[in-house]
Design brief:
By secondary structure, the chain is an all-beta fold. It is about 0% helix and about 50% strand.
């Protein structure tokens, strides 16, 4: 699995983001030009991040291995 920075985020991607000071991996449920709905897959409610607030993240793309 490769790690890419600042690539285009699409529905179905897995990204690593900082949430409340903790790095988490999350599944992108829906990605629009304005916001991204993420599921941390930890039995919590999915959450929304505005693209303008998503300054740092890592995008995992298995097809680039």
């Amino acid at each position: 699995m490769s790690t890419l920075l600042k690539e285009r985020i699409e529905s179905g991607d897995v990204i690593e983001v900082d949430r409340d000071g903790q790095l988490i991996s999350a599944l992108v449920l829906l990605a629009t030009e304005d916001a991204i709905i993420l599921d941390a897959c930890d039995d919590t409610t999915p959450f929304v991040i505005r693209r303008s607030d998503l300054l740092e993240y890592r995008l995992f793309r298995p097809e680039t291995v």
